[in-house]
Amino acid sequence: MHSHPFTQTTAYSAGQTVSHIAGQVFEHSLNTQDIRRYSRQLMLDSVEDEGQAKLACSHAVIIGLGGLGSLVARYLAGAGVGTITLVDGDIVDISNLQRQVTYNEMHLGELKAKSLFNELRKVDPKLNIIFKSIYADSKNLPTLISTADCVLDCTDNIETRKHINAVTHRASIPLFIAAASGLRWQALNLPQNNERIGCYACLVEYINVREDCLSKGVLGPVVGMAACHQATQALLFLAKRFNADIKWGHYLSGNASQGSLRSFILPPSSTCEVCHDPN
Amino acid sequence: MTQIKVNVNNQPLNVIAPISLSELIALKQIDVDGTAIAKNAAIVSKREWPTTYLNDNDTVDIFTLVAGG
Q1: Which domain, by its residues, includes A197?
Q2: Choosing from A199, A213, A228, A272, which is the catalytic residue?
Q3: Does B45 touch chain A (CB under 8 A)?
Q4: What's the whole-model pTM score?
Q5: Burial class (CB in 10 A: 0-12, 13-18, 19+), A141
Q6: How far is it between the farthest Cα atoms of chain A?
């Protein structure tokens, strides 16, 4: 087990692990079944027992439960993220089944948040899954994310994305963004507490982002690629927090047709209404 | 007037300097709606496109932002 300068880990009997990072204490016991369940990721340097303990003590808020969020939620639950809040006011429609792989015909007409809650409970009934069958907006977001260790923006419209960015920035809660349309997918990790890194509002400032899955269409696996990246980044963060070996403030743009991936630095904008401090 | 060589979306392009990002977009007849530009792998705010000029061997990436999920 590695030891980081900012991390102290103490191994207790019966697989109990207690970790301390920046004054926070993470305590979780891995029993025999946990060790079997998580054996494939416990072998990774980026997880190990200590990271697994942190995952179990983590709270991730997933906003939007469509092609991105439904898959992200499944991966986070499978990896053992202890508390997951699912937020979406939408219902399952037959047009969703092409790409929203967690749902099937049995779920048609049901609230996505409730359907996904039921499916995740089948994956691991010990997890604390909370579902909110509401659409996120500027009024309810502060409460929805107040106890989150990270937020995953899995929504499909620019206005909600802007609200999520603003609220997570105010609360200094790390934000993992992904999006897809056509054969392209994009993603961005924002620490929301680093003045050298721009925010989502800096990215879309003065830009009329009009594309979405309704107007341009999308191939199911392309959303899946975005979701898999987003879930990976969030899990690595939750397991090691700011010691995780992930890139913050780099905008990824993937072309699924060409199999290409480009990465761009997102500097802060001097006129950003969200992250620029005129003082 | 000086001719410079830049790389736009992985394609070499000879242009006459001085040329700004706004002028490059106009030259390439690209629809600016939803478009973002990175110069030498750093995103440039749209507000700064008219005053951001290209140098020889600069790399420009022009791409459309997406928001679907």
Answers
A1: 58-265
A2: A213
A3: yes
A4: 0.92
A5: buried
A6: 57
CATH topology (fold) of B2-64: Ubiquitin-like (UB roll) (3.10.20)
Residues A135 and A20 in one domain: no
A236 within 8 A of A246, measured Cβ to Cβ: yes
Mutation target for B interface from A71, A258, A264: give the one with most B CBs within 10 A: A264
Q: How high is the pLDDT of residue A143?
A: 98
Ranges of beta strands (E only) in chain A are: 7-11, 16-21, 24-29, 59-63, 83-87, 128-132, 150-153, 175-181, 184-190, 250-255, 260-265
DSSP for residue B46: G
Is A210 a domain residue?
yes
Q: Which amino acid is at A224?
A: G
β-strand pairing of B35-39 with A128-132 = unpaired
Give the pLDDT confidence score for residue A3 in this predicted structure.
36
Phi, psi of A253 (to 5 degrees): -130, 115
**Any chain A CB within 8 A of the CB of B31?**
no
- ipTM confidence score: 0.93
Across chain A, mean pLDDT equals 91
Same domain, yes or no: A197 and A88: yes
Which domain CATH number covers A175? 3.40.50.720
